[in-house]
């Protein structure tokens, strides 16, 4: 019995595009890889991730952790650093540092990795207003927990 002839040749699954390319699509007119990075202590950052994931209608974007586990970094839209002034955190520009799906900072890793834009799941950056509210709530929860001891 003859073998059926496939109608198409199977192709390997496409590899995710570099984050720089994904961000360029999301932020038209910005340089490739344009985003800012909000860094915060890991305790407050992990609490904020929980708050964002369970209560916010807005998706949380990619989150980095440093190798020692001391800080978390949230990718936010370019320009956020210009007006970021939340005590206990810092926001820096990352334009031109070649962001990709590999962690952009040596010795770091993804707590929440970036997802390709065509998956329809999540966003490529976290809304800075939503992040600020989550970080504020996290700080209040941590302070309340510490005062109960």
Short overview:
The protein is of the alpha+beta class. It is built from 4 helices and 5 strands, in the order αβαββαββα. The protein has a 5-stranded antiparallel β-sheet.
Question: Which geometry do the CA atoms define?
Answer: globular
Sheet of most strands: 5 strands, antiparallel
What is the H/E string? Answer: HEHEEHEEH
- Rg: 19 Å
Largest sheet strand order: 4-1-3-2-5
Which regions contain 5 or more consecutive residues with pLDDT less than 50? 5-30, 118-122
- Looking at how many chains there are and whether they match, the oligomeric state comes to single chain
Report on the structure:
The chain is globular, with a radius of gyration of 19 Å. Helix 2 crosses helix 4. It is of the alpha+beta class and 149 residues long. A 5-stranded antiparallel sheet has the order 4-1-3-2-5.
Features:
149 residues; alpha+beta; five-stranded antiparallel sheet; 4 helices; 5 strands; 17% strand; globular
Strand-helix topology:
Layout: H1 19-26, E1 36-41, H2 42-55, E2 63-66, E3 71-76, H3 80-83, E4 89-93, E5 108-112, H4 128-147
Antiparallel strand pairs: 1-3, 1-4, 2-3, 2-5
